[in-house]
Amino acid sequence: MVKATRRTTVLLTGGMGVAAALALIPMAPSGGGKVATATAPSDSPGAAATASSSPPVGAPSSSPTPWDGKVKVIGDGSTSETGPEPKQLVPQKLKPGEKPPQFVVFSWDGGLEGDEHLFSHFREVAKESNAQMTFFLTGIYLLPNSKRYLYHPPQHPVGTSAIDLATDQHIKDTLEQLRQAWADGDEIGTHFNGHFCGSGGGNDWSSADWLSETQQAYSFVENWKTNTGYKDIPPLPFDYQKELVGGRAPCLEGQKTLLPVEKQLGWRYDASSPGDFQIWPAKTNGIWNFPLQELPYPGQNFQVLSMDFNFLANQSGGDPNGDPSKYAQWEKTARDGYLNGFERAYNGSRAPLFIGNHFETWNGGIYMKAVEDVMRNACTKPQVQCVSFKELADWLDAQDPNVLAQLRQLDPGQAPDWSTFIK
User: Are strands 353-357 and 102-110 parallel, antiparallel or unpaired?
Assistant: First the structure.
């Protein structure tokens, strides 16, 4: 396995313009040290309020029944069943001598449509690039500030969160984008709710805490119509009990106690690992583990996690408004870092590439521009499949476990003789 010095940073922000400054964290060579974390400041805690009744327990349904062509409104009308998901990858088992597709997953934490209209913009970019994506929705982005007392965060006062809640217009815009994203074939996962990190965050939560947080994430999506009072907006076109099969924990914290909850709920994957080499995925506790990945930082002898914030942390020390004279070079570095990881796998082991993002204009929006360039460049190449995490899980489940075990032995840039490798 190729080894290199890491300088790894862990995501601390949750969106809506929140960007916590984070010092660069030097790490031990790969395979040695652990990813270090820091505590993110909570910039918008709300006052504690009278407790409300507990939200309904979220749990996935059993295998879905065939759609009869009629829209089935669920609960208070916040969601509905509208039939099979559109434009989904049909998984095919690898044949002897066949080279695997190069999978790339673009995922987005938070999912808020803000004034910059980045959510809608990247939906259009994905269409033009023949790509599907995963949106990890923050549940409280569908909860009005006036109803924040409905949120009971583990180990924190009722109604508090480490991120701002959305405005009424943001909620309406986000609902529209979620509706259209699902129709595009994109996946709606979860980024949970309050985005607490460090002390009192995911690493301190028990499985019971995570279950409560997850139940509330279900509830905020399934009851946005009651919570907002909006009567003239159509339901989200999916049953969240069936749609939700994976998530990413805020700050990539708490996976150990989160995994048993995900398994209990029948989820397919977890994307909360703080970083690993770009190798073929494996299951942890029966759940596909899809970590952020270590990519070679251009021009330096260290690895950077495959997420926009981690380039930001290495370039401007976590300051979202760094030196404008460096924007052009920083944008090129981010783009080249992603593409270096892509080319290494595309011409090597074909291990999937995972790229994490936020709808933010950090450092003049250079990370958005870099990701757009990568999507347009990579997703249009032969034998490349830009898919959602759920689609990747489907494909992996269709493969021979022995073949996957064999693929996991490859270094990221190692290209075997594919004509004899898959037997």
Answer: parallel
Beta bridge partners of 357: 108
Phi, psi (rounded to 5 degrees) for 149? -65, -15
The answer to whether position 82 is within a domain reads no
Q: Indicate whether 73 belongs to any domain.
A: no
Domain range for 138: 5-21+102-414
Asked whether residue 94 is domain-assigned, the answer is no
Q: Where are the beta strands (DSSP E) in 205-286?
A: 246-247, 269-270, 283-284
Q: How many domains is the chain partitioned into structurally?
A: 1
Residue 264 lies in a domain: yes
CATH at residue 279: 3.20.20.370
Which pLDDT tens digits describe the chain residue by residue (423 residues)? 333 334 444 444 444 333 322 322 222 223 322 222 222 323 332 333 323 333 333 333 344 566 677 788 899 999 998 887 787 888 999 999 999 999 999 999 998 887 779 999 999 999 999 999 999 999 999 999 999 999 999 999 999 999 999 999 999 999 999 999 999 999 999 999 999 999 999 999 999 999 999 999 999 999 999 999 998 999 999 999 999 999 999 999 999 999 999 999 999 999 999 877 899 999 999 999 999 999 999 998 899 999 999 999 999 999 999 999 999 999 999 999 999 999 999 999 999 999 999 999 999 999 999 999 999 999 999 999 999 999 999 999 999 999 999 999 999 999 999 999 988
- Summary count for the chain: helices (H), strands (E): 12, 15
